User: What shape does this take?
Amino acid sequence: MLVSLQDIERAAAVIAGRVHRTPLLSSRSLSERTGVRVSIKAECLQRTGSFKVRGVFNRLHRLTPEERARGLITISAGNHAQALAYGAGREGIACTVVMPAHASRSKVEASRAYGADVVLHGSVFEAFEKCEELRRERGLTLVHPFDDPDLIAGQGTIGLEILEDAPDADVVIVPVGGGGLISGIATAVKALRPTVRVIGVEPEGAPTMILALREGEPRRLEHIDTAADGLAAPIVGPNTLEHVRTFVDDVVLVTDAEILAALAFLLERAKLLVEPAGAAAAAALLAGKVQAPENGHVVIVASGGNVDLPRLKQLIA
Assistant: This one.
């Protein structure tokens, strides 16, 4: 099911005042390094530290009284868990989040601090299975981490803001995990400015969307190996795949080394702390994986900034 520009505009009205309108930051250092004008959509400065809260508040708006009373559940490596815990807490709804046993300590602690019942379980594959098991046992309502039209519409509000702040944008580069973020942004951008190119970025160790595009349907990865835990979804959804097929111009791969180099660059030169997933768009540009027109304007989405400080030392050492 494709969401529409009207769905995204309605979502913008729903979440207004509940989330930050994040800044679009210029970056002289990135611009000089890449030879194009670069702006950074700083969703790493969003409430809960990532874009996820946008889609969550839009989804919560659509819950029935019965769903609210029963409580919610989700599966997440961390950012969606924090966003749902925060949103549910603000609205007085019980929330359970299932996270892989190796999930970031800071993301686990933040989810608990926002009020969620956190269940740590196995690998990312096993965590998905545990989430479904608990949903059935407890009669909870699943708030999917990415493959939900309400979530996609909520994330699409970023696209509206980008074009309001950068009406001359030529290229928008977006990290891809399960695909909800790029689905929403691309829908908004293509509806308003069809000539703008929208490029997705996946880590080589988790090429979920590229596999789905090649196979023509979502296919579960058998192995995931990336430092970008926020982009480590084992499978995309039918909704996100349909949006990417329809609205996204290309999806490129970056290595973990390129992601971590971009993370260090953003921290040192742009003074912006991002997690590995949040550095993926910058990595694609810095590594020459995305071409932009001469004197063009490129917007990169820094999707999240939730990174453990001890792990940050390891990542940029």
Summary: The CA atoms of residues 166 and 251 lie 22 Å apart. DSSP finds 14 helices and ten strands in the chain. The chain has a mean pLDDT of 96. The first strand starts at residue 24 and ends at 26.
